[in-house]
């Protein structure tokens, strides 16, 4: 028994990570020296896990799994993840799953707040001849938004300052795209989406179609900043790392047309104090628009009678062709 204990001690010494050897670089990254013997032990495991996918017939699935394993193990080895930290991560993901339901998607919030959603969007929506830039989808889109006609109001009674939204939908050669489906949705002035009040409620969202000349126009609400739902695991993570849960003010769009790449994007008011501090990293310079404030009594474009101030914004949408 004593000899076995000595052997275990020797093995432990051979794989020991010396905490005194840790150093911090200019970027704040901690580097720890790991013995060659320990590196070999860890690399053998990586190699074995990667080899376990050799029989996978789906080349893309194999590529994804191998890449995931390489990066996951690299993370564990780089930060020298402790078993306690690993357990905390598992608990965090478990709680994220428990709070997710048909209305609230905590995993999307997690992806958004880590920048993974935006990076996936960047990879899949490459710049093309002035096409409108894409940004995050967000967790509050629903499929059954009511249809409105041009000039109608998508607020459906949601509280907030009225906003006149207009623009055109064209392809990258400037040709108007008639009949483009335009989905729009946004939070009210209290920072809440309709489904956060009632899963079956529909307000502050609609869909409409562009006219023969590619034009569209509707009434919405002047966007205001609001926090993402921060009463769950993602909110606790943001608080722990000293980050705000606030999203920059925005209005969501999803625009589709036959032969065009579907666009998911927002527009953001110029001068918003949140701006680039947007907790999901969704703001892009090209999507910042001037929402022009209109004094009370200013005539509206469609003759609507508004009691108080309102705003107006123009957003011309350019769709890239499919396959680019």
UniProtKB/TrEMBL annotation:
Residues 165-193 form the Intradiol ring-cleavage dioxygenases domain. InterPro entries: Catechol_dOase_N (IPR007535), Intradiol_dOase_C (IPR000627), Intradiol_dOase_core (IPR015889), Intradiol_RC_Dioxygenase (IPR050770). One of its GO terms (biological process) is catechol-containing compound metabolic process. SUPFAM superfamilies: Aromatic compound dioxygenase (SSF49482). GO terms for molecular function: catechol 1,2-dioxygenase activity; ferric iron binding. Keywords: Dioxygenase, Iron, Metal-binding, Oxidoreductase. Its cofactor is Fe(3+). The keyword Oxidoreductase applies. Belongs to the intradiol ring-cleavage dioxygenase family. This is Hydroxyquinol 1,2-dioxygenase. It comes from Streptomyces aquilus.
């Amino acid at each position: 028994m004593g000899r076995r204990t000595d052997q275990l001690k020797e093995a432990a010494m051979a794989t020991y990570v010396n905490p005194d050897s840790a150093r911090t670089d200019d970027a704040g990254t901690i580097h720890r020296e790991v013995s060659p013997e320990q590196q070999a032990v860890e690399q053998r495991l990586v190699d074995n896990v990667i080899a376990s996918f050799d029989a996978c017939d789906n080349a893309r699935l194999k590529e994804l799994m191998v890449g995931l394993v390489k990066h996951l193990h690299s993370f564990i080895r780089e930060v020298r993840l402790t078993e306690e930290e690993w357990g905390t991560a598992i608990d965090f993901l478990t709680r994220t799953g428990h709070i997710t339901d048909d209305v609230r998607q905590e995993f999307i919030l997690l992806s958004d707040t880590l920048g993974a959603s935006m990076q996936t969007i960047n990879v899949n929506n490459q710049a093309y001849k002035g096409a409108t830039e894409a940004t995050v989808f967000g967790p509050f889109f629903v499929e059954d938004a009511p249809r409105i006609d041009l000039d109608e109001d998508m607020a459906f009674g949601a509280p907030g300052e009225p906003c006149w939204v207009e623009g055109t939908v064209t392809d990258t050669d400037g040709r108007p795209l008639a009949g483009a489906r335009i989905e729009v949705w946004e939070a009210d002035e209290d920072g809440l989406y309709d489904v956060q009040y009632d899963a079956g409620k529909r307000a502050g969202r609609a869909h409409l179609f562009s006219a023969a000349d590619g034009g569209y126009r509707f009434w919405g609400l002047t966007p205001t900043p609001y926090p993402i739902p921060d009463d769950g695991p993602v909110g606790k993570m943001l608080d722990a790392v000293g980050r705000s849960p606030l999203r920059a003010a925005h209005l969501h769009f999803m625009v589709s047309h036959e032969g065009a790449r579907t666009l998911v994007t927002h527009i953001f008011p110029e001068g918003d104090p949140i701006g680039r501090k947007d907790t999901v990293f969704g703001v892009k310079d090209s999507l910042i628009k001037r929402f022009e404030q209109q004094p009370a009594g200013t005539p509206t474009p469609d003759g609507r009678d508004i009691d108080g101030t309102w705003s107006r914004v123009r957003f011309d949408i350019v769709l890239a062709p499919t396959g680019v």
